[in-house]
Specification:
The protein is mainly α. It has 39 helices and no strands. The protein starts with a helix and ends with a helix.
Length: about 650
């Protein structure tokens, strides 16, 4: 009767009715004699959800026959139940009994890989390949490639993945995908694209099949149906590799192909947010702003709770200096998720960028109530207070941040805040703490530049120059660093060296306005008025309407004895800054030379009125009386004119 039950079970098994097959085989399991049938019965138990029973049954088979294949099958089931250590124990026994069976080495290899024990995995998978024929070794090469890839060795992984696709008839889409990924990692991006395109073609072929390509997969590999489902999931996660392909085209600068790849993906996976985001990224790099905006808005429409699309759209608007639009996007997200710390952070940042600092502080208050243990929230608070000019509050916020996360970046920002307050020694100590936490930071241009600024404020010119010199050596392409060092040379009278630094900086950036201004000052000090004038005019081309530039132009023309041009320049200054005292004084000197006494007196009076807003009338009179370069009569008349403006307030004063 047991044999009859067993025969009925095999009949239903052949018809893929595993539940009914199992019902009959269970009744006749005592008639199972051969090891092969016993293994088959255990696998049926496992595949119908009776894994523990399968493990127990295989334990009995091992006791009866001590067969290595029974250990291997039990290890296989244990591995699928995520009981890898038990699986390895069984596989050790199986190899001890029969070291010639490649499948045992293979199974132990992939189990070690799952545990992250890559050296052992690589060893076992190589042992498996030694014992396999060429066809079965293909999947082993793939697993060996995965072990190399996951252990951070893409170069050796490439060699293995190449073996897995050597015979296209035995290859599956993921083999091409992983080969392409590793080629990308070793810098062969164009080759990676050509390989991935082969994977895309095969993937589309799978997708076109009624069974999603299982029959093709089954004919190509020795993997199980469970493995097929895993590969299919991985393929769908990259949208039939279109997401990865679009990214590769993006990095190659082949934007049209990148858009095409993402668009093809959207035809297959309609409404996929990741593809909209990637296509928007390609459009952004391509300079097609409106198309990028449209894709990001479509992504938001598909999933209004996906933060990435909102943040991407806000960043895009910021790239075009459209802070208002960026803030509107974040505000929409904030209305949906007002209690999300991440969204609150972005909303506070948007308000900060708009200059709405009081509102930004209030939102940061809320952020700190929601999330007190994130140092970034306190550094955001410090940034807001720096812009508000409340450096004490900024310093306090950074102290709180350091309690949470004692890292060099926060010490560096704290150093900057202390520097702004004139606390130079304390600022230097904070910089040194940053370097202690990150020894490499001591050689970073940011650290060296900050040190230079502090030494400069302390009047330690040699140390400042040395710091800027080291910063230039670390980042020789940064024109701003040459400006900083040139400023030190200028202040210490080393005009030739200042001139050289200005010129080198301009060679690096011909549109750097600040260097033209500084070089103009150097030429002025060297009495080379023609070059000084040329540089300040170039500055005005880059910074039209700058009052400081017109003041410099006036000084140059005055020194070069072109008084009319000097007057025009000083008048330009006063049309922008009517309170600029020094321009009035220069005009007074020019008019005095021209014997224009009334104009001279009026400009002296104007100078005294704007010299210091806090001065009393008596202070202003003393300032006029102390002027040099005018005769006494002019100064007396200027005092009389000023006194008449104040009336008896002057005498009360």
């Amino acid at each position: 009767m047991d044999r009859i039950w067993l025969k009925l079970g095999r009949y239903y098994q052949s018809r893929q009715d595993l539940e009914k097959a199992l019902r009959y085989i269970r009744k006749g399991h005592r008639a199972i004699q051969s090891l092969t049938d016993q293994i088959t019965y255990a696998e049926m138990l496992h595949h119908t959800g009776h894994s523990e029973e399968a493990i127990a049954y295989l334990g009995q088979v091992i006791e009866w026959k001590g067969a290595g294949v029974a250990y291997e099958r039990r290890a296989h089931i244990l591995r699928e139940l995520n009981r890898e250590e038990e699986a390895i124990s069984d596989l050790n026994e199986a190899i001890e009994l029969n070291s010639d069976n490649y499948i045992t080495w293979y199974t132990r290899g992939v189990t070690y890989k799952d545990l992250g024990r890559y050296n052992e995995a690589i060893r076992d998978l190589k042992e498996s390949i030694k014992r396999e024929d060429k066809d079965s070794a293909i999947s082993t090469y793939y697993e060996l490639g995965m072990a190399y890839y996951e252990s951070g060795n893409p170069g050796d992984a490439v060699d293995c993945f190449r073996e897995s696709v050597r015979n296209p008839e035995r290859a599956i889409p993921m083999y091409y995908c992983m080969l392409a990924r590793c080629l990308d990692l070793i810098g062969e991006l164009e080759h990676a694209v050509s390989v991935l395109l082969q994977g895309v073609v095969l993937s589309d072929r799978y997708e076109a099949e009624p069974d999603q390509g299982f029959s093709l997969f089954n004919a190509s590999t020795n993997y199980s149906r469970g493995a097929f489902l895993t590969f299919q999931r991985q393929m769908k996660e990259t949208f039939s590799f279109r997401l990865l392909l679009a990214d590769m085209f993006l990095r190659l600068g082949q934007y049209e192909k990148g858009v095409h790849a993402a668009s093809e993906g959207l035809q297959i996976y309609t409404g996929a947010v990741d593809l909209y985001l990637k296509r928007a990224e390609v459009y952004t790099e391509w300079g097609k702003k409106s198309e990028a905006v449209e894709d990001l808005e479509l992504a938001i429409h598909q999933d209004m709770n996906d933060f990435r699309a909102y943040f991407g759209l806000a960043r895009l608007y910021r790239n075009y200096d459209e802070e208002d639009k960026a803030a509107d996007v974040i505000a929409k997200l904030y209305r949906l998720h007002p209690e999300s710390p991440l969204v609150c952070y972005w909303m506070a940042d948007a308000l900060f960028r708009l200059g709405r600092h009081d509102e930004a502080v209030k939102l940061n208050d809320k952020l700190l109530e929601l999330e007190k243990d994130d140092a970034a929230n306190y550094t955001q608070r410090a940034d807001i207070y720096i812009e508000k000019g409340n450096l004490t509050a900024a310093e306090e916020a950074l102290q709180e941040a350091l309690k949470i996360n004692d890292i060099s970046e926060i010490h560096n920002k704290q150093s900057y805040v202390l520097y702004l307050q004139g606390k130079n020694e304390e600022a230097m100590l904070e910089l040194q703490k940053a370097a202690e936490l990150d020894p490499e930071y001591e050689h970073h241009p940011t650290y060296l530049t900050a040190s230079g600024h502090i030494y400069k404020e302390m009047g330690l010119w040699d140390l400042a120059i040395d710091s800027y010199t080291k910063a230039i050596q670390a980042a020789s392409g940064n024109a701003k660093l040459y400006e900083f060092r040139a400023g030190c040379f200028f202040e210490t009278g080393q005009l030739e060296r200042a001139l050289s630094d200005c010129s080198q900086g301009i060679e690096l950036d011909v549109n750097y306005a600040g260097l033209y201004s500084l070089r103009s000052a150097v030429y002025l000090a060297m009495m080379d008025y023609a070059r000084a004038r040329m540089d300040i005019m170039r500055f005005l081309e880059l910074q039209p309407g700058h009052p400081g530039a017109y003041y410099r132009l006036g000084q140059i023309n005055y020194k070069d004895h072109d008084e009319e041009a000097a007057l025009e320049a000083f008048d330009e200054v006063l049309s922008i800054l009517p309170e600029h005292a020094e321009s009035y004084l220069y005009k007074a000197h020019i008019y005095f030379h021209q014997f224009e006494s009334e104009e001279t007196i009026q400009n002296i009076v104007n100078w005294s009125l704007h010299l210091n807003k806090e001065d009393s009338p008596a202070d202003r009179i003393r300032a006029i009386q102390g002027l040099e370069g005018f005769d006494e009569m002019i100064l007396e008349r200027a005092v009389e004119k000023l006194s008449a403006m104040y009336g008896h307030q002057l005498y009360l004063s």
